Amino acid sequence: MAARPPDGTNGPHVFVEDLEHPQLSADDAHHLQRVLRLRPGDPITICDGAYAWRSAVFESSPSITGDIVRVSPPSPRITIGFVVPKGDRPSWIVQKLTELGVDEIHLLTSQRSVVKWNSDKADRQLQRLQRIAREAAMQSRQVRIPEIKAIRDVQLAAADSGAALTHRTGSRPSLKQSVLYVGPEGGWDNSELVGMPTINLGSSVLRSETAAVTAAAALSLLREDLLDNHSP
Fold first, then answer.
1. Domain with CATH 3.40.1280.10 in the chain
2. Which residues belong to CATH 2.40.240.20 in the chain?
3. Residue 6: what pLDDT?
4. Number of helices (H) and strands (E), helices first, in the chain?
5. 140-199: per-residue pLDDT in tens?
6. Model confidence at 230, in pLDDT bands (50, 70, 90)?
7. Is it the case that residue 47 has pLDDT exceeding 80?
8. How is domain 13-70 classified at the architecture level of CATH?
9. Which runs of consecutive H residues, i.e. helices, occur in the chain?
10. Rounded CA gap, 122 and 124, in Å?
C-alpha cells in the first residue's frame, strides 16, 4: 500500500525546509504557540513540501519522533487556471484549490478580464497568493504546496500547458484532460474558443470561483478513483 499523508491524529501540520534538522519559521512558531495553544512536547507533523513528512513534537526546534514517510506523487498532475476576478476572490479560490489537492494554479487574463494588474501589483499579489497556498496546504495536511504561475494571457498559457477551457458545450470531465482553465463571469470571447478543447462543468451558470472549485473537485475525485468517469 502506498504511503499516505498525515491524517490529523498527530497534531498540527507544518512545513520545514529540512526534515533532518527542522526549524520553524517565526510565523509558524507564533501560530502554533499563540493561536493553536501548543505547549512544548505536544505532537505535530513536519513536512518538506516535497512529498515527505515525519512525526515530531513542538519545541523551538522540533524534536523528531518518527521516521520519514515518503508519499508517491499523485498522477496525473492537476492544473487549474482562472481568469482573475475582482476583490479578494482570488485568495478564496487559491485556498480552496489547495485544499482539494491541485498541483498547479495558473493566474490568467482574457479578452473580458475586469482586473488589470500592473507589474508591481502582479508581483505582490503572486507573493500573497503563495502565502495563502502554503497556509491552506498546512491546514488541509497536504504533502506539497501547489505551484502558482504568474499572471498571463490565457491563449499564451494554454499554448504552453495544453489546457482545455471550461465551457457549457464541452465534453465531460476526464483525467485525459487534467489542465482546465476557467473563464471570467462574462464568459470566453469567441476568439479564445476557436480551436480549443472544452470541458463541461454542468448546465448551471457558475460564478468564476464556483467553476474553479467544481473543476478541481471533479478532477481530484476522478484521480482518487472516487467517481465513475464513464470510460469504456
1. 79-223
2. 13-70
3. 82
4. 6, 11
5. 999 999 999 999 999 999 999 999 999 998 999 999 999 999 999 889 999 999 999 999
6. low
7. yes
8. Beta Barrel (2.40)
9. 26-30, 89-99, 119-139, 154-161, 190-193, 208-223
10. 6
- C-alpha to C-alpha distance for 135 and 123, rounded to whole angstroms: 19
**Does pLDDT of 124 surpass 50?**
yes
Q: What is the pTM of this model?
A: 0.93
Pick left, alpha or beta for residue 20 (phi over 0 → left; psi -120 to 50 → alpha; otherwise beta): alpha
Question: What architecture is the 79-223 domain classified under in CATH?
Answer: 3-Layer(aba) Sandwich (3.40)
Cβ atoms of 223 and 175 within 8 Å: the answer is yes
Nearest-5° angle of CA 53, CA 56, CA 58? 125
Phi, psi angle pair for 153, to nearest 5°: -65, 140
User: Where do we find the cell 482539494?
Assistant: 100
- 19 contacts 46 by C-beta, under 8 angstroms: yes
Q: Is the peptide bond before 12 cis (omega within 30 degrees of 0)?
A: no
Set of cell numbers at residue 229? 468517469
β-pair partners for 163: none
